[in-house]
Predict the structure.
Amino acid sequence: MDHLPLPLEGITVVAVEQAVSAPFATRQLADLGARVVKVERIDGGDFARGYDTAAGGLASHFVWCNRGKESIALDLKDPRGLAVVRQLVAEADVFVQNLAHGAAARLGLDSATLCAAHPRLIAVDISGYGGSGPYADKRAYDMLVQCEAGLVSVTGTPGQPVKAGIPAADIAAAMYAFSGVLAALVRRGTTGRGGPVQVSMLEALAEWMGHPLHHAMHGGEPPARTGLAHAVIAPYDAYPTADGGRVLLSVQNDREWRRLAGQVMGRPELGTDPDFATNAARVANRGRTDELVADALGSLGADEALTLLEKAGIACARLRDLHELADHPQLAARERWRRVDTPVGPLKALLPPITLPGGDEARMGDVPALGQHTAALLRAVGMTDDEIAALRRDGVAA
């Protein structure tokens, strides 16, 4: 079999992006071989650069979302800076932006304007709530959209709704933007034409809410918030072990319950006890069911509990923290970690989850410093060193 190149080799992406949604989308494109030119503000760049300093002095969000890109710092409010972006876009295959509502249109960088001028261009607008409607102008930070999309209403404990611990709305929009670009590239391959791609954070996350949404809309009650438990299955929760760990298990049917009772809990009679023999009975007696399971696992270490559960054919998992995830034996065994160069030196990063056997490995390029590629990109659009120096002197480029 011939060795295959990365699927987006030869594709150029220009992105006027910030925070998470657009940068995470374009990072997927970069990992698959696209050249991504990231246009940043001259006064600090993408504001995600300043979120924290946890990644060796760099912001963890920025390191996560921006490897493999070239950074050019320009003032787009100056006609000279905007002209450079338009030159870059004229040679690009894809343009992505997630500026505040109306800002791209004022700059002439909205998808409709750009696609009218460049028929082969795929131009992506990522917004909070879409380009029209009563919410179009609202600020759309991830937590706010999680609330508007109802995610917070189904996450947490009975007494306390909570937001997801990751930027779920940003990630949802990013992945639909990513897949939208791939679909548009396929269409361009057959028609020769690009076109706009529009994604909103609310609509992306609302799609991810499909199960609880359909459950509530079509005659049912909204699923209850149950923490790590399951609203309609028992036992299905995390239980503490003797060594301070927590083990999550899920019993999907009554046969599994009988195996759990006999092989793990040492109480085979519970398998036929009418208070516990069926899932309906266990849910009705959830408190007693959980207490019995907790008593059994509480006398075992986490490793011992997991071994017994696996042997009994019970679905189970260790409740890991982030340091334990970083040391996960499955990720290590599958060699999923790589080193990515950054302005503060190499940092560990995971290979992207799309694996394409028989070809080049994902291109996990460097995390750029602000404006690291400004001069090279300005030369590429035909500027002389004197012209570049003038832009820097006037604060148009950095």
